[in-house]
Predict the 3D structure of the following.
Amino acid sequence: MLKTIVILTVIFGVGSAARISSSLALPFEAETEFAVGDELSIVGLVDENNIHIKFYRSEKDYIQLNISYYDENRIDVRFDNYAETYPEEQPEFTINSFPRFGHVELILSFTEYGIELAYGVRKGERKFVQILNHPVDDYAKIHSIYIKGFKSLSEVNKQ
């Protein structure tokens, strides 16, 4: 049985001022403030459990990034917009032939243009996928991150 192992890393800032948080096993819930130059990186395996990442501005105003298992070689990635302020829908897109074994990295970068999603297959190699059309100064300041759908590393190690 495939075990889910996911490491979450948040990188604050860029250059010499960069701070890297501790890597955490999921599930993980915290309030984190993001600014331009910050990154949220998810590394690991995806199985039949889905990943849900919510970016909140208020309890009823958030965007949810859904990463869903499709089959052994594919995951589907979708943004669902629950933002009352920006009611337009976000597009759905699929990452095909996603290498599910080994180190897979999904990267959320907070830029002056919005929240950019990319994925890395090998260290240092990234492919741009999607950018949320919500400006960072509106949407990335005060977000709690809630990620569900995973066992913690300690639970995985017990099995």
Remarks:
- Residues 6-153 form a domain with the Jelly Rolls fold (CATH 2.60.120.200).
- Residues 65 and 79 are 5 Å apart (CA to CA).
